[in-house]
Structure formats: structure tokens, C-alpha cells
Write a structure and sequence with these properties.
The chain is an alpha+beta fold and 86 residues long. It contains two helices and five strands. Helices cover 20% and strands 37% of the residues.
């Protein structure tokens, strides 16, 4: 569910629990309202995101790689406080 893809990037199944991702990346991620990384991204986006869109949560940038209908299915994740997201 969490696969390193090189250079500090990971491919993540959106069903991965937020706590598991936070522990693996050694970062603080909010986990109040969602159980999964996909839920976190949907809440951050405040709408159904499109493939290729990126969202920052703290020092982590999530990019939507694959959708299944209205559900986020797969994400690319990078831990980097310097990446700018438009």
C-alpha cells in the first residue's frame, strides 16, 4: 500500500490509514476526521480532485495519480517542505 518510488517519493494506495503514512514518513498529519489518506486528500481539496492535482498538508505533498469514479484510488506522495503547490 506504500511503495517507495525513489528520490523521496512514494506511491500510496488511498486506502492506507493516515496514521500508517504519518509513521512511515515520520511526519504529523491530521487524522481527526478521516481514517484514510484518500479521505484526507478529499477533505483538503474540498471537492472531488482530478488526476494530476497536488495538495499540500504540512510538509507532505499529495498528487492524485488514479481515480475510481469519485474516489481517490492512488497517490504520489513526497515529503518536502520546499515544494510549492499551485
Amino acid at each position: 500500500m506504500l511503495v517507495p518510488s525513489g528520490n523521496g517519493h512514494w506511491t500510496v494506495d488511498a486506502r492506507l490509514p493516515v496514521d500508517d503514512l504519518a509513521a512511515e514518513l515520520e511526519v504529523d498529519l491530521p487524522d481527526d476526521e478521516w481514517d484514510t489518506v484518500g479521505g484526507l486528500v478529499l477533505d483538503t481539496a474540498e471537492r472531488v480532485p482530478e488526476v494530476g492535482e497536488s495538495f499540500r498538508v504540512g510538509d507532505v505533498v499529495f498528487t492524485v495519480v488514479r481515480m475510481q469514479g469519485r474516489r481517490v484510488a492512488e497517490l504520489s506522495v513526497v515529503k518536502d517542505p520546499l515544494i510549492e503547490v499551485e
